Amino acid sequence: MALTARTRTLLRLTAFQGSWNYERMQGIGMAWASLPLLEPLEAADPVRHREAVARAAHFFNANPFLAGAAVGAAAREELAGAPGERIERLRTALCGPLGALGDQLFWLGTVPALAAAGLIAAALGAGWWAAVGVVVAHTIFRARVGSWALGLGLAEGTAVGTAIQASWLPRGVEWSGRLAAVLVGMVIPVAAWWLLGSAPGSRRWLAVALALVLYRLSRRVRGRLSAPEFTLIALALVFLWHWSTT
Amino acid sequence: MTGLDPVGLGALVVWGAIVGLDLASWPQLMLSRPLVAGSIAGLLVGDIAAGLAVGGVLELFALDVLPIGATQYPDFGVAALTGVVLAAGRPVPAMLGMATGLALVIAILSGPLIERVRRANARAASGAAAALAEGNAHVVSALHLGGLRRDLIRSIVLSLVAVVAGLALRPLGLPPGRLALPLLLVAVAGALAAAIRGAVRSSSQGGRFAWVAAGFAAGVLVLLWR
Question: Could you give the CA distance from residue B55 to residue A168 in angstroms, rounded to a whole number?
């Protein structure tokens, strides 16, 4: 059974950043995802089709999980024969809101929330099912949001920005951020006790105190050293201390 | 008994390739989160506890990473593989510090590799600028699939390096007890410091400090209850 153009675009949206680069960022990924939706133009108006593909491949940068809204809206306008400049303006206008809302919903919301929840579950004995739960929950949420965003773009066209603002998304961003804040706060003591389970009680407190010192130091050198680099230096100092005393 | 035989190691490299590709290219299902990558790697080599612990420490580091736009970020998922190979079949508390250290080296090395792939994608797009301006759909597909192929190659290379590095250091054996505990404390402290940075960033978004504090208190309560 042949997949519909919408389903093929949804599948292609899962690889939206496959050709990410510093010139067009996600532009080529956007064009690739748009191709199934633009197919009706290929036979009806080949010139318009080529113009539409060229426009779709221009610079674009947004959150990949919400990018379907821009793909759908631009494709709808292309099929409706809207002026090229208007479609360019629509794409440009959508980069900011889709980037900001999507990054807050996913990268500052559901992704750290699920990662922290997985860590807490693992610490409480869920084993590798914690990892399975993280992947399943993210996949279901991401698929639903991706499908919703593409459908909204296709339905609303140039009005997609207004439709997003009036949707559940702004409230979803707020609540996913709160959920992430609670779970990331919760994971710190739980993970500390889990990972230091074999250390004597006083040493656990030493590690927590050391973490606070490292956190303060890492704030001072922010921009020059990342947390992994900082930790590697500390581990190297432990090795040096060991070798110098044996 | 671990699965560090050719079949197990081969499966680990295949898993690493999937994990690396998942980071940004396809399908972004959180397979590249270190907790997930480490757990499955542990399952593949027959030591889930090692996989969970190594993945757990690296997950705390990953909570401080915002993979947005052009930022360069480490591939903690593939890096987890090296720690799992090093720690598999051995007492986790004794190996966790060293395994974390080696995984962090791989994670740091992975950043520039991602950068190289992105620059190669940019060169390919520049070379095809005329065809893109003409709206050639075949060129669009070729460029996109080429980008995916480059990231897959990066992931395979990084996975091989991660697995070989873990195997190369295994003959060193367990660190002496006097060294193992300080390494564990420093590794976990560094990871917690990164997670605290992530929590502070969460709390700075829309004044959510109270939510972070409530979560911390809930975490302490959970520990007391247990």
Answer: 34
The whole-angstrom distance between A41's CA and the closest CA on chain B is: 12
Angle at B207 between CA B206 and CA B208, to 5 degrees: 95
pLDDT by residue, tens only, chain A of 246 residues? 568 999 999 999 999 999 999 999 999 999 999 999 999 999 999 999 999 999 999 999 999 999 999 999 999 999 999 999 999 999 999 999 999 999 999 999 999 999 999 999 999 999 999 999 999 999 999 999 999 999 999 999 999 999 999 999 999 999 999 999 999 999 999 999 999 987 777 777 888 888 988 888 887 876 678 899 999 999 999 999 999 998
ipTM of the prediction: 0.96
Domain borders along chain B are 6-225
B27 upstream amide cis, omega within 30 of 0: yes
Chain B partners of A25 at a C-beta cutoff of 8 Å? Answer: 69-70
Is the Cβ–Cβ distance between A32 and A65 less than 8 Å? no
Kindly state whether B126 is in contact with chain A, defined as any CB-CB distance less than 8 angstroms: yes
Global confidence as pTM:
0.96
B87–chain A Cβ distance below 8 A for any pair: no
